[in-house]
Amino acid sequence: MGNWAVLILCCALASPALAIDDPDDPTERTADMPDSWLVLYNLNNPDSITWAIWYAQRRSIPWSNLVGLDASSNEHLTNNAALQGQIINPVRNLLESGDPPRKDSIMGIILGYGLPGHYGTPLQSPGVGGFSVTDALQDMTDDHLPLGILDVDGTNTAGQLDYNLDCPAIYGLTLPSAGRLNRDSMADDRYMVARIDAPTLEDAQQMTLRAIDLELPYRSLSGESVWYDYYAPGVGLTNDQWAQLRLAVEAPELGSLPWVEFEADTDLIHSDAFRFSVYRLVGWQDGWYDSAPPGPGSRVLAYDHSSWGATTVRSTTDDGGRSVPNALAGGYAASIGATGEPGGGWRPLPKVLLAALQEGWTLGESSYLSNPTDDWMWNLVGDPFLTLPNWFDEVIIDPSERTADMPSSWLVLYNLNDPESVEWADWYIEQRDIPAENLLGLDASLDEHLPDLAAVQAQIITPVRDLLTGDPEFESAIMGIVLGYGLPGHYAEPLVNPETGGFSVTDALQDMFDDHLDPGYDFNGGQRNYNYLCPTLAGRLLPEDEERLTKADLTGSDVTSNSYMVTRIDAPSLAEAKALTLRAKVLEDPDYVLAGEAVWYDYYDPQFPSGNNEWSWLRTAVEHPDLADVPWSPFEFTSDETPQDAFRMAVYQLTGWSPADFECGDPGSRVLAFDFNDWGAVSVRDATTNGGLYVPNALSAGYAAVVGATGKPACCAGPMPQVMMAALGEGWNLGEAYFLSNPYNDWMWTLVGDPFLNVPSWFDAEPLQGDLNGDKMVNLQDAAGIRACMRVSGPGRPVDAVCDPFDADTDGDTDLADFAAFQRSFTGGPVLPRTGDTDGNGEIDLVDFEVLQGCHTGVGPRVLEAECEVLDFDFDLSINLHDFSTVQKRFTGD
């Protein structure tokens, strides 16, 4: 392998680490600090390199703690010598280097994606597994000794199987009396170790994303169970029982846990936080972890006391189907298993594991404490930083602390009369981790329009209001409402042009306590009330404290009581409705930035019915000093393209819209489009209805969200761009930003898009040098490109159009100085997606063109098949002419 992968890590800038008062004091260093861990990766596996950099970013681990190893890509190493040469010696040498030595600050080691997991000849069933690499890393001082089964009393030194002296006595206390371990209290040269590996790069990343989700401060395991089965006849266990699991179930310290007994061979389980069972060796397969109603729980960890459960974590079918890979495929964030036949060796102790997690310690600490033997056959596969902040305690969030970025703060409405709406609702709450009890099915019309106020009252408003007023505790948690796929979007006769649109259902849901009044203009005699949480039109952009709104802000005595944030998610098809959320989730990735893109605006139109033919609030936004850092770019929307558009705001065309109006050769992130006109959101399910309206055509063109009117709002102010931009720039979600920006309840405006959408990096980051394919990442795809450019360009040889993005110092060639800039920019990211190489043969050829033709979707987001994702170069969840043009440019084969 070349040196470029090593240089990427050597030259990358360091990540921040958690500060401690004295970083050299081992009594203050604990395993929840990012710089207490080494991360090992495989230099011979490009996906492993990508994973390591991605993982370090996610966990704020310094680049200097990443260790590349020249290792086999197989899961098994043939003998102890191979283990020593490829893994142990390089790690041990690093730990002993420096003054003071690195080992004084390192408490844990992660065996990363793509590295071997076991080694040597197993004690039984040669050819199946071996000894655990993670256990070998736990103690690297005795690897000159032979492997074998020995007593575990801590005195036998004839082999490698040593007793973990930090593990509490097996029949004693569940945790050390001194409390959480620090570097000083651990035995010298002992390390906590976890493995992160999976069948694919994406699967390995998902393990950490799952862990991060479980760590959210409002997450709780309340209402879930710890399922157990410690009885297994005929397998040689004393009394046919896994004694250590029985001790955990009966331990007084764990008496408050929701233990539920089951028969592992026959029973489906549900609401499972943990699953402990015994003793199935093979035959694990897809479906084994299927759940009984009401569905799976948080699935933190699965642990089956069996042999060979972790001989592979990269396949669910190899070796007859093993417990660990199947548990991970079943959605568990972590799993424990043996890499061979552990024979008489002690197993990790469930009692200690659960007691430590209950104390709020990390999974890495808990696993280390529970594992009585070093240098043996056990594996924890999962992210060691995983913690469970609220354990099984019910989380009651004070209204002053409840915010709209919490999944449980949203009520999701769907249409009982539309099977696809039911399917969408189940899918959506899974995507957004919204509790099932936050779903409300409505007996509603399938039309977008309801004829009058009585119809919207009966079908939508009253059922929602009754639910909330009938359960004050539930209502106290709800800040927002999603009007879901397949539900009506407007009602009653509009004030102008009675056959077109009406009043907005989302605006009606924003304030449900004045619906006995007629829709109309009049403040006192009709429903159109002012949103008092909306900042004054000429005042500050955000509420005075500039902190995100809480539930208390929505129900306080100084504002309109019982207000809710509301958005609509709808589209011409179920796939397109799902694509809105999938597109939002792409934008929410912490690595995704809007740097280098623009906010296009056109606030003048001679047909706009204002005194100066201007949308004054858009002009206010463009000229506002607090938004001076926003990359505003003027355009004439009737004639100009808007390349690299993060946002697009214009005025005033009413009808005649088509996706072609948004076409350009270089589309950007397309977060939100907003045209101030009439009737733009009368339909979001058809791009041609009523002569072609704004909202459905903007959605078809790939925007993740669009704002439009369901009728003719006439003279009234619409949502204010300056407030939306300010709130999104603060990192608030789209639901909050729109609510703050919308001055009127019960009127004619609708936000169509996922309310959780946020853009964490905003426009702050510098454009990425070397991002050849425009995927917002500088990664291994670009590495291949810069290497090619150095061959055709290099010092003194001019760059061409393809290589120009890599000429970081703009000196007219691509040389080592440019390569250094590329290294500093390296962000990691997927290797195969968006390459255009659908068959992985290293070329863009006619085979790929044939796949491209079959994948063509036209403009507008879709749920793409895996083989089509590699062709979606602009991340717009569609395969269209933009992608076709890119494939043409990259064509390399016949």
Summarize the helices and strands and which ones pair or pack.
Layout: H1 4-11, E1 37-42, H2 46-59, E2 66-69, E3 76-77, H3 80-96, E4 108-111, E5 118-119, E6 131-132, H4 133-138, E7 192-195, H5 201-214, E8 225-228, H6 243-250, E9 259-261, E10 272-277, E11 301-304, H7 323-329, E12 334-338, H8 350-358, H9 363-370, E13 378-381, E14 410-415, H10 419-432, E15 439-442, E16 449-450, H11 453-470, H12 472-475, E17 480-483, E18 490-491, E19 503-504, H13 505-510, H14 551-555, E20 565-568, H15 574-588, E21 598-602, H16 616-623, E22 632-634, E23 645-650, E24 672-675, H17 694-700, E25 705-709, H18 721-729, H19 734-741, E26 749-752, H20 780-792, H21 816-825, H22 846-855, H23 866-869, H24 881-890
Parallel strand pairs: 1-2, 1-4, 3-5, 4-7, 8-9, 8-10, 10-11, 11-12, 14-15, 14-17, 16-18, 17-20, 21-22, 21-23, 23-24, 24-25
Antiparallel strand pairs: 5-6, 12-13, 18-19, 25-26
Helix pairs in contact: 1-21, 2-5, 6-8, 8-9, 10-15, 16-18, 18-19
Quick recap:
By secondary structure, the protein is α/β, with parallel strands linked by helices.
What does this structure look like?
With 894 residues, this protein is an alpha/beta fold. It is built from 24 helices and 26 strands. The strands form six sheets. The protein has a six-stranded mixed sheet. Strands 22-21-23-24-25-26 form a six-stranded mixed sheet. It is globular and about 95 Å long. The N terminus is likely disordered.
Annotation keywords:
894 residues; alpha/beta; six-stranded mixed beta sheet; disordered N terminus
Please provide the count of β strands.
26
Mean pLDDT: 83
- Provide a count of the helices: 24
Q: What percent of the residues sit in helical stretches (DSSP H or I)?
A: 25-40%
Our estimate of the beta-strand percent is 5-15%
Query: Biggest sheet: strands, sense, closure?
Result: 6 strands, mixed
Shape: globular
Give the termini distance in whole angstroms.
28 Å
Radius of gyration: 30 Å
Strand arrangement, major sheet = 9-8-10-11-12-13
The structure class reads: alpha/beta
Low-confidence stretches: 1-20, 824-834
